[in-house]
Amino acid sequence: MNIANKLLIATAVSGLLVVNVSADALADKGKKIFETNTQGNCIACHAINGKTLDGPGSFGPVLSGLKHWPDQLIYDTIYDPGESRSKITAMPAFGKSGWLSDEDIKAVVAFLKTIE
Ligand code: HEC
Per-residue pLDDT tens for 55-84? Predict the structure, then answer.
């Protein structure tokens, strides 16, 4: 194999690594938003199935199986629960109220896709 081919493969492999790392970073950001009381503070109302987090609330349902939900449905539920499929009115509309940005909500969705 000549050097140009080797370089091409090395570039392709490192490209894949970058993609994986940034997906993890997005989920990590979402986890932080989920747990931080000045941000999403989802933890105040939701426990997460399969993950042990300190002090989860029990006002909302235990979140589980969200990796089976379409991304858009999770996004819409967080953006405006009152207008989402489930018409939830006891949960704040994080996107509509401006508490979380589009980017923040996408990060939370990425995190929720990682839970069991
Ligand atoms: C003030 C309490 C409260 C906070 C804070 C809160 N939620 Fe909720 N959430 C609820 C309630 C109550 C429900 C709906 C219960 C029901 O089904 O009627 C709900 C439902 C949901 C659902 C639908 C679950 C299902 O199985 O149908 C998702 C997803 C969700 N919340 C995600 C979040 C995320 C992500 C955050 C943080 C950005 C958050 N919630 C913050 C109270 C809250």
Answer: 566 788 889 889 999 999 999 999 999 998
- Tokens at 51, concatenated: 């993950």
CATH code: domain of residue 19: 1.10.760.10
Instruction: Determine the residue of 46, 68, 106 to mutate for testing ligand 1's pocket, defined as the one with the most ligand atoms within 8 A of the Cβ atom.
Output: 46
Domain containing residue 85:
3-112
Q: Find the Cα–Cα–Cα–Cα dihedral 71, 95, 102, 78, rounded to 10°.
A: -20
CA of 60 to the centre of ligand 1 (A): 5
| Ligand 1 site, CB within 6 A | 34, 40-42, 44-46, 59-61, 63, 74, 77-78, 86, 88, 90-92, 94, 108
Residue 5 has pLDDT above 90, yes or no: no
